[in-house]
Amino acid sequence: MVQQAVNNTKEQFAHSLDLDKLIQDAVIDALSSFTSMSKQALESAKILKELKAVLLGPAELYEALRQRSAEKAIFSDDRRVA
Fold first, then answer.
1. Overall average pLDDT of the 7-29 stretch
2. SS3 per-residue string spanning the chain
3. With bands split at pLDDT 50, 70 and 90, how would you rate the model's confidence at 74?
4. Residue 10 CA neighbour count, 13 Å, CB half
């Protein structure tokens, strides 16, 4: 794919059958992986607990949600002023 990108215009590259197949294969692989991971998580309280720890720790879910709420509040205030 790298060679095709180098040798073709973006439009030609976008019409590549190889690219279509590569994207389709990636989606299928992701579906299989996510299905397997989801099944494992749903069948294990330990995995769900670890997932929660990651979301609340390094992934900063709580902080991200609070930030999103603050941004929505600012946007709402801006719309009321306008």
1. 92
2. CHHHHHHCCHHHHHCCHHHHHHHHHHHHHHHHHHHHHHHHHHCCHHHHHHHHHHHHCCCCHHHHHHHHHHHHHHHHHHHHHC
3. confident
4. 0
CA 35 to centroid of chain Cα atoms: 15
Backbone angles phi, psi at 57, to 5 degrees: -95, -105
Calculate Rg over the CA atoms of the chain. Answer: 21
Query: Which H or E run includes 2?
Result: helix 2-7
Per-residue pLDDT for 82 more than 60?
no
Query: What are the domain boundaries of the chain?
Result: 1-43, 45-82
pTM, whole model, 2 decimals? 0.53
